[in-house]
Amino acid sequence: MSIRIFITGGTFDKEYNELNGELFFKDSHLPEMLELGRNLIPVEIRTLMMVDSLEMTQMDRELIVEHCIKSPEDKIIITHGTDTMAKTAALIAKEVKNKTIVVTGAMVPYKFGSSDGLFNLGSAMAFVQTLPVGVYVAMNGRYFNANNVRKNKETGEFEELK
Amino acid sequence: MSIRIFITGGTFDKEYNELNGELFFKDSHLPEMLELGRNLIPVEIRTLMMVDSLEMTQMDRELIVEHCIKSPEDKIIITHGTDTMAKTAALIAKEVKNKTIVVTGAMVPYKFGSSDGLFNLGSAMAFVQTLPVGVYVAMNGRYFNANNVRKNKETGEFEELK
Amino acid sequence: MSIRIFITGGTFDKEYNELNGELFFKDSHLPEMLELGRNLIPVEIRTLMMVDSLEMTQMDRELIVEHCIKSPEDKIIITHGTDTMAKTAALIAKEVKNKTIVVTGAMVPYKFGSSDGLFNLGSAMAFVQTLPVGVYVAMNGRYFNANNVRKNKETGEFEELK
Amino acid sequence: MSIRIFITGGTFDKEYNELNGELFFKDSHLPEMLELGRNLIPVEIRTLMMVDSLEMTQMDRELIVEHCIKSPEDKIIITHGTDTMAKTAALIAKEVKNKTIVVTGAMVPYKFGSSDGLFNLGSAMAFVQTLPVGVYVAMNGRYFNANNVRKNKETGEFEELK
Q1: In this model, does residue A1 exceed pLDDT 90?
Q2: Model ipTM?
Q3: Which partner from A73, A128, B81, D130 sits 20 to 30 angstroms from C85, CA to CA?
Q4: Inter-chain CB proximity C19 and A109 less than 8 Å
Q5: What is the model's pTM?
C-alpha cells in the first residue's frame, strides 16, 4: 500500500522572491525531491496548507489531525516547519492511535544548495516503513517520540525533553 | 553507540577529471554529505577501498566481510557501487549473523546536481537504526533482504528476485 | 595589471540563517565564485561593506567613490545590491572620470541554486576588460551607461531610462 | 539585433548515463543556462552537432565555418569542447572576416555542481558584444585571439602561444 504524504509548508518549501528579496511559498518541492531520490515507493501526496509553522493555528493543527484520521493509508509522512513541529506531533499523538506517522522538515529551504531536506526526506521514508505504530519527529538522522522532543532554539537542533 | 560506515567507492563517490574528462575516485564525499544532512547520529567512518563495483574482486568482498565481523558496532552502513551491490550483500548475509547491515549507493555521483545519494544516505541511516538484525540493500526509498534483490540492468532499478 | 573588485554586499552575498529563517550577510562568496569559474585574470578583492543596497547611505556611496579614485587599478568591478545599483553607479560616473568601472549584482543569492550571480560575474569580468573608460551597470547579459539605467521595480529587470 | 549561438557539444553539455555510468550527450543545456542567467539579450540558438571535440572532423569544422558565413547575425557565440577549440577557432578566423565570433566551453559539465560553464557563458555574451570584428576563444575570464591560443594539456588552462 502507498505511503501518504501531507504537506503543510515550512522551511522545506520556501522560495526566494526576486522582486522583494523575501522568502515565500509557491508550490511544494516534494514531488521534485522524490524524483531526485528516484523514489520507488508508491506515495499519495496532498498539500493541506503552505504556512510558516510559527503562524500555524490550533485550527490548522486540528485539520492535520483530521486528515491523519481519515487517511486510508496507515503510514503517513507530514512535512512541517521546524519551529512548532514538536507541538503538532504531540497533538497528533494524542488523537491518532493506530498509524505510523513521521513528521519531518528542513533547517534550510530545499532550493538552497545547502539544504538538509533531501536527507531528512530519505530518512522519513525509511522510518515510516519500519517504526511501530506511533507518532515521531524525524530530523537529521534521528527520530524522536512525539511526546519526548523539542527544538532547541539556541542550537537549532532537536533533542529529547529528558 | 555509534553507527559504523564503511566506504568502498561506487558511483556515490565519483568525480569528474577536468584534464581527461573521465570519472575517477578521489576522496569520499560521505563526511560532506552527513554534514549537509546536519546528521546528529554519531558515526565512525572508514574507507576500505575506492573501486568501481564492477572491478570488485572476491578478495575485496572478503575484506568487507571481515571488517563487518570485527567491527565493535552492531549497526553498519556500507556504501557500494550499484552493479554488484546485491552480490556483496549476499556474501555478507552468509557470513555475518548478528548485526544490522545496510548496503547503499547512488545511481548518479553525489557531485552531480541530480544525484540520489543524499536521499539514499538519509534512508540508510534510518533503516540501520530500525531494521532487525540482518543484511539489507537500501536504494531509492526501498529496502530489500540481501538474499532477495537484484539490480535490473535494463531499468537501473532494484527489485525482488521473486 | 589586475582587476580591482570592491564588494559592498547585496543579494549576491546573502545567506540563510538556519536559526531564525532570515537572510543575512556573513562572508562574501566572490572568491568561491571566481574559483568555480576557474578565473585566470589576476584580481585584487576588497570588501568595503556588506549591506542591503536599500540601506546604503550617501556616506557609504562616497566611500565607494573614494576607493574607486584611490585604486591603482583602472579596471574596477563593484558588486552591489540591485535596488540602488543605478544610483550608486550614477554618483561614481559623476566623480570618477578616467577608469572603466562595472557595477554588477544578482537577482537571487549565489547560495541559492537558481542564482544568476555566476553568469553576471562572468560578464562583468569581460565587460571591464573591453569597454572604454566610463561607468556601467552589467546585469543579465546587458550593459548600460551609468547615466541611462534604472531597475524596473515591477519586472525586476534593468532597462534604459529612454 | 540578436546574437547567434551555435552549439557543437563538448564538455558543456555532457550528462551522466545512470545505466552504464558513462558521459553522453542528450539535449543542450544552453537554453536552461541562459534562463538561469536571466539573460535579456535576444539570442538565436541552433545546434549544429553534439560531439566530443576530440572526435570533431575537418568536415564538421567546415560545416561550422559555413554556418558562421551564412548567419545573418554578425555576433556569434560557438560552444565547443575545449580539446580542439583552438583548432576550430583558427579555421574560422581564416575563413570568416567580417564578424565577431567567440568560441567558449567548459572544463566541467554544466550538470556537475562544480562547472565553470555559466561563468564562461556570461563572459562570452559580454565579449561578443564588445570586442571588435575577429575570432576569439573565451575561457575562464580571459579572451584570446584565435591565432594565438592553445590549451595546455598538462594544466588544462588556455594560454597564448607566445
Answers
A1: no
A2: 0.96
A3: D130
A4: no
A5: 0.93
